[in-house]
Design goal:
The protein is of the alpha/beta class. Helix content is 41%, strand content 20%. The strands form three sheets. Strands 3-4-2-1-7-9-10-8 form an eight-stranded mixed sheet, sandwiched between helices. A six-stranded antiparallel sheet has the order 12-13-11-14-16-15. The protein has a two-stranded antiparallel ribbon with strand order 5-6. Strand 3, helix 6 and strand 4 form a beta-alpha-beta unit. The protein is globular and about 75 Å long. The longest helix has 28 residues. It binds adenosine-5'-diphosphate, aspartic acid and magnesium ion (MG). Adenosine-5'-diphosphate binds next to strand 11.
Length: 458
């Protein structure tokens, strides 16, 4: 079997869903499990409605729900007719009614808990999967809808719940496999899950990729396909570098560095479950399904690796805060770094980039959540300074391991572009070099690096 995940823009309207159906039909013989996102923008709208009613504006929140309902009804009526359309419309009404009840609840209590935020967010995938499943059956695909919440069992860390792999494996085998065995196309939702006692959770923004990868891993899929709105993994975000080129093949290590450091095309944790089972991941464009996309594999076969290629891609992540801790007395003393990191551990805050010198440690975090509390703790062990509105730029490629002078080329290009480098760190894997720059220099930095390494490619 294979897993096919369709992101928000790949299910955004009736035209996109028709394309999806054609794509699934072509893969029909490979026993697909289809994992779908919410229609583009809907998750954001749902979260906005939740915040709006918490702020006391119930009628504006209900207005947003009305828009969501109209959009889904439009898609349904473009795709369906007769009894099937009626029954889908009834179910849309039910889901919207449930959402309205949530709005009413938040309004009355004046409180929006992480648990209810996840409930709100889950409706995007519930609505899209409902329509896609019906449209498949309407178009000659024998499809079965599985509620992901019966399979994707997670802990209760709302907004970024952790799947419990053993339980997910058990449930997937029990609930999904029999349908696959009877030759049905199974449709389920990405992003959402539930605790063991049935409370709805979500596994993090952009998490449908991760859902796909987890389902693929527990069901031993032969391939995981991520269908999106670009041709595959590109040499840089095409929104910044329009002439960025498609990468044919990359290793799991390269892809996870890129995803982790900002290439939004894949959720950062997506690769892990696939790595464990060495399941190839393919990133494909639902708007141009004939394009071969990017294949992500454990080891790149010799004949597929481009000789002489140094770097594969450049990613960036904005909204970074740099924390400098100076401690001339203690830095070299043993236990200092352990103490330092235990503070981040205590607040469950992940650190992206670290650089140390004789007297100071610099590290970066990607959100301001609990920053003040962390700073207070850090001040107990040294002088602390922070710099905000920074960005990480990450250059990735297995070829960097062997190429001499890559660092010089990177610094030369950035120097010429007058980009000030705040921090540098090279991963132990030697396949990435990570730089911290000012947020407003990001486009210039990515542009100059792309020109340096790929400028004369065409
Ligand atoms: P989906 O809704 O299908 O999950 P996303 O919007 O999450 O799609 O991810 C696709 C987007 O990722 C692209 O539109 C592109 O702008 C962005 N992106 C960032 N870096 C890269 C990269 N290196 N290669 C391809 N796309 C990238
Ligand atoms: N719909 C969710 C989001 O927008 C999950 C996803 O699309 O991957 O974050
Ligand atoms: Mg995504």
């Amino acid at each position: 079997m294979i897993v096919m995940k369709f992101g928000g823009t790949s299910v955004e309207d009736a035209v996109a869903i028709r394309r999806l159906i054609e794509i699934v039909k072509r893969e029909r013989h490979r026993q697909p499990l289809v994992v779908v996102s919410a229609c583009a923008g809907v998750t954001n709208e749902l979260l906005r409605a939740a915040q709006t009613v918490r702020g006391g504006d119930k009628s504006k929140a209900l207005q947003t729900l009305k828009g969501i309902k109209a959009r889904h009804k439009q898609i349904a009526s473009d795709l369906l007719s007769g009894d099937l359309l009626n029954s889908v419309n009834d179910k849309i009404d039910e889901l919207i009614q449930e959402l309205q009840n949530f709005v009413q609840g938040v309004y009355l209590l004046g409180e929006l808990t992480p648990r209810s935020i996840d409930s709100f967010a889950s409706f995007g995938e519930q609505l899209s999967s409902l329509i896609i499943h019906a449209a498949m059956n309407h178009n000659g695909l024998d499809a079965e809808l599985v509620d992901a919440r019966n399979v994707m069992q997670t802990d209760n860390a709302f907004a970024s719940a952790l799947p419990k792999m053993e339980l997910v494996t058990e449930k997937a085998k029990e609930i999904i496999l029999p349908h696959i065995a009877s030759n049905k196309v199974v449709v389920t939702q990405g992003f959402i899950g539930a605790t063991e006692d049935g409370i709805t959770t979500t596994i993090g923004r952009g998490g449908s990729d991760l859902s796909a990868s987890i389902f693929g891993s527990v069901l031993d899929a032969e391939e995981i396909q991520i269908w999106t709105d670009v041709d595959g993994m590109m040499s840089a975000d095409p929104r910044i570098i329009p002439e960025a080129h498609l990468i044919d093949v990359m290793s799991f290590a390269e892809a996870s560095e890129l995803a982790y450091f900002g290439a939004k095309v894949l959720h950062p944790r997506t690769i892990l479950p696939a790595v464990e089972k060495k399941i190839p991941v393919r990133v494909l464009n639902s708007k141009s399904p004939e394009v071969r996309g990017t294949l992500i594999v454990y080891d790149i076969p010799k004949e597929m690796s481009a000789s002489g290629e140094v770097i594969k891609s450049i990613a960036f992540k904005k909204g970074i805060t740099v924390i400098n801790v100076n401690s001339s007395r203690m830095l070299m003393a043993h236990g200092f770094l352990a103490k330092l990191f235990s503070i981040f551990e205590e607040f469950q805050k992940s650190v992206d980039v670290v650089a140390t010198s004789e007297v100071s440690v610099s590290l970066t975090v990607d959100s301001e959540e609990q920053l003040q509390e962390i700073l207070l703790e850090l001040q107990k062990i040294g002088d602390v300074q922070i710099k905000q509105q920074k960005a990480i730029v990450c250059v990735v490629g297995e070829g960097m391991r062997n190429a001499k002078g890559t660092g010089a080329r990177i610094f030369g290009a950035l120097g010429k572009a007058e980009v000030n480098i705040e921090m540098v760190s090279e991963g132990a894997s030697e396949i990435n070099l990570t730089l911290v720059v000012d947020e407003h220099d990001v486009a210039k930095a990515v542009r100059s690096l792309h020109d340096e390494f790929f400028g004369n490619r065409n």
